[in-house]
Amino acid sequence: MPELPEVETVRRGxxxxxxxxxxxxxxxxxADLRLPFPQDFAKRLIGRRVLKLRRRAxxxxxxxxxxxxxxxxxxxxxxxxxxxxxxxxxxxxxxxxNPAHDHVVFHFDNGASxxxxxxxxxxxxxxxxxxxxxxxxxxxxxxxxxxxxxMNAQKLADELHGRKTSLKAALLDQGNIxxxxxxxxxxxxxxxxxxxxxAAGSVVxxxxxxxxxxxxxxxxxxxxxxxxxEAGGSSLRDHRQTDGSLGYxxxxxxxxxxxxxxxPTKDCKGVVARxxxxxxxxxxxxxxxx
Length: 290
Known about the structure:
Largest sheet: 4 strands, antiparallel
CATH topology of the largest domain: N-terminal domain of MutM-like DNA repair proteins
Strand order of the largest sheet: 1-6-7-5
Shape: elongated
Oligomer: single chain
Number of domains: 2
Number of strands: 10
Order of helices and strands: HEHEEEEEEEHHHHEE
């Protein structure tokens, strides 16, 4: 499933087409994805102008000029591709983007069209009133944005203080940090030199203040996410950018999917290991991650 950097990469690719543009036609080719499409989905979008395209956790949110918002989630295999009009070369259709899986096509007054392709149909699209988004069951209870100003070591300490669950499980809890997924948790923990198996509360002192290890982790989370976004995300299975190209941050992984390889930490003699943890693969160095 695409994680935050992949979704943010898609947002950046779509924003120049969406923002300021008006829907002139919407081709809805099926009744549902993971969830049914809203009633009169296409009709409600036609004539609406997109004010802003933003991201919340792993959701894309197009704010519309009538107070509603188009909420989109990529699911496990969803992707968008952009056709900027007949005057340009034909749209590149990436491998795996079989047109038979083109479920929605948005047409805009700027001459562009955007196609949503989803072989597994685990994505979803909703129309919600903008001022009610955070109250919706999909958003209610989501934690802070890991790249926002609110995310810092003290905020993490507030969330982790006294927690006996594993540090990795706490970081993956969307009620603590929204949008942070398995790949980038593994990478951030390695950069910070912290074991994914240690108790979450062990990086907070008795007074509730962050220890230096938690200061390192907060920086590592932001650093790895920013670097991944600049690299266009990680293309392991389904992720493509809006122009059909692959992200390439996977080439910069230190531990994720690197089982059996030498630990890249300077002077460390460890070997990257893989262990199942809460149903997911955890990649880590058993020597330098304490």
